[in-house]
Design brief:
alpha+beta, three-stranded antiparallel β-sheet, 2 helices, 33% helix
Length: 89
């Protein structure tokens, strides 16, 4: 039987949470976002043949600003700061 982590989450979910928090922090720092800006990070499986398969999608939402979508063509746990910096340009 597989052991469960914090709040019943499996280790993979804990790893994704940590990776998501890391990427959110990088986004906030890189863009100098105000505290009221919302950042979401999701790992998506794209079924379109033009997609890389698994990609990381980042939504950046600020009051009075258009929502910005940034995609990084790799799994969330593999995203590096350099990937994010390139995607934000």
């Amino acid at each position: 039987m597989r052991a469960l982590g914090v709040f019943g989450l499996g280790r993979n979910n804990v790893d994704l949470k940590e990776a998501s928090d890391r990427v959110k922090s990088w986004v906030r720092q890189s863009l100098s976002l105000p505290c009221n800006a919302a950042v979401t990070v999701s790992e998506l499986n794209c079924r379109d043949v033009r997609c890389p398969g698994v990609e990381t999608a980042i939504l950046i939402m600020g009051a009075g600003e258009p929502t910005r979508l940034v995609k990084i063509p790799r799994p969330l746990k593999d995203v590096q700061l350099s990937d994010l910096e390139a995607a934000l340009q």
